[in-house]
Design a protein that fits this description.
The protein is an alpha+beta fold. The chain has 6 helices and 4 strands.
Amino acid sequence: MTILRSFTFYTIILSTILFYKLSAQDQSSKVLYAGVKIEGLESWMKEEFEQKFNKIFEDITDQMIDDKNVLDVAGEELDSLFSEINDFRFKQVADKMDVAYIFAGKFKNVSPDDRKVMIQGEFYRYNAQLNSSFRYDVLRYYERMDAEARAIKQQMVDSLPTVTTPSSFKNVLLLFGSILLVGILLMSLAGTDYNSTGDGSGGTPVTPA
């Protein structure tokens, strides 16, 4: 019975450690989309261009941090980032916002023909843990940017190792809850059995006749 109680106790302890470890992993997988900077486009086209990139994050909205306060918290760091995109400036933003990944892009219209718009630039994915960034180079006519945005999503967003974390985390949470309930039940049964059988040293003394 002592072995059963010990097994149950350590099962609960290990399950608790696993739960908090995965909880920390889920929190550290947060993503910041810092936006894109685009030059040489009319205002309506600029807005449309920004929407194309907003859509590539639709599948991981539960990992994205709320960007409403980003400018208030890291406005100066973001300005520095877009003035010169590099890993050092990415790190400044990541430290300020406490995120694992940052996405940002910088583009301009390089077409010599006023009747055509050609987009040139780079889109970045920064990994805070590795302190390094992956760059995707773009040189496309504007009418082909939908296909280019899909390619960027596939290569840079869908390939994130933590994209599936929220789903697996929920499964582990359910498993943890089940193990905890079973452990409590086993400890309860072990305690009941122990109390009912005693330790073998008690009993009512018998008076010799």
